[in-house]
Amino acid sequence: MRRLIGVGVGPGDPELITVKAIRVLRTADVVLVPVLGRAGEEDRAETGRAEATVRAHVDGAVIRRVAFALNDTGGVTQARAAAWDAAADAVTGVFAAGAGTVAFATLGDPALYSTFSYLAQGVTARDPGVTVETVPGITALQDLAARSGTVLTEGTESLVLLPLTAGPGALAEALAAHDTVVAYKLSAAGPLDTVRKALAEAGRLDGAVFGARVGLAGEDIRPAAMVEAGERVPYLATLISPGQRGGRGSRLAGKAAAGATAAGPADGTAGPASGAVGPSREAADSAGQAGRAGDSRGGSV
Ligand SMILES: C[S@@+](CC[C@H](N)C(=O)[O-])C[C@H]1O[C@@H](n2cnc3c(N)ncnc32)[C@H](O)[C@@H]1O
């Protein structure tokens, strides 16, 4: 039996990986890790964040790098398609050499914007006998919520996740239609001023949280209102705009009730209604690396 398993290894902090992910990585015949670069030049590539987490838990002898054009933008570019094909060829080559189980480590969760889904499609197209499975991982949005003290949803609130590669109007539409809005791939919108403008126009700049390199060296978590308009936004940056709340339990019965209790919680307690973000901070407690992120999809293991 040939199994290809996409393993979510968390958002970068090597402690945010599940017990199951570690077991699957340690028992796989080969563990593939994505790196930013060209096929044939993997050894020269910078250590990726998924790779750094894997190396914290797994014997290096089973780790093999696979090149992806991870930062390519603009749809299915030639470089991107070529990288997908080369990666799929590499996986089928590993199976042909005798491997039974191949794990592919991906940042966050393999079902969310991950390269793994493209890899799996390429592998099964070449070898329909390969079984594809996934192990879920902790996402960047969860880690940002935890580190910033942000409650993602309460009561009847909706939660939407969108990538800013979806175009300039997508964030404004999401802010108008949903309670909590999370945006990935912030750098696709350029400096943060366009994002800040969309938040301000929706009356949601206050309370929005910006997080770059969350859990990695150089972590930067701030209220979005404190990010200067012209600041360069790195690839690993996420935004959370929490739902509008009026106090404890205000969203249990929908938006109307939120307005009715907007004066504050009945018992006078001050819970973390829309999240609380401290001042800018630099985290030095992580083994995360620079470089460009890996990305993800599944079954069960
Ligand atoms: C291709 S997606 C991968 C998402 C990942 N599979 C997940 O489940 O979180 C890459 C985007 O995830 C977000 N991201 C991933 N890791 C992050 C981190 N450590 N800090 C901030 N954002 C991160 C950024 O928005 C980045 O552009």
Name of the CATH class of the largest domain: Alpha Beta
Total DSSP helices: 8
Residue runs with pLDDT of under 50 for 5 or more positions: 261-276, 278-301
Q: State the separation between the terminal residues, measured CA to CA.
A: 14 Å
- Structural class, by secondary structure, is alpha/beta
Q: Please compute the radius of gyration using only Cα atoms.
A: 20 Å
Give the CA-based shape: elongated
Question: What fraction of residues sit in β-strands?
Answer: 15-25%
Secondary-structure arrangement, i.e. CATH architecture of the largest domain? 3-Layer(aba) Sandwich
Classified in CATH, the superfamily of the largest domain is Tetrapyrrole methylase, N-terminal domain
**Strand adjacency order, main sheet:** 3-2-4-1-5
The largest β sheet comes out as: 5 strands, parallel
CATH fold group of the largest domain: Cobalt-precorrin-4 Transmethylase, domain 1
Q: Estimate the helix proportion, in percent.
A: 25-40%
- Catalogue the ligands: S-adenosylmethionine
Report the order of strands and helices. Answer: EHEHEHEHEHEHEHEEEH
Mean pLDDT: 84
What number of domains? 2
Task: Please render the helix and strand layout as text.
Layout: E1 2-8, H1 19-27, E2 30-36, H2 49-55, E3 63-68, H3 78-96, E4 101-106, H4 115-126, E5 130-135, H5 140-148, E6 159-163, H6 168-177, E7 180-184, H7 193-201, E8 209-212, E9 220-223, E10 237-241, H8 255-260
Parallel strand pairs: 1-4, 1-5, 2-3, 2-4, 6-7
Antiparallel strand pairs: 7-10, 8-9, 8-10
Helix pairs in contact: 3-4, 6-7
Bound molecules: S-adenosylmethionine.
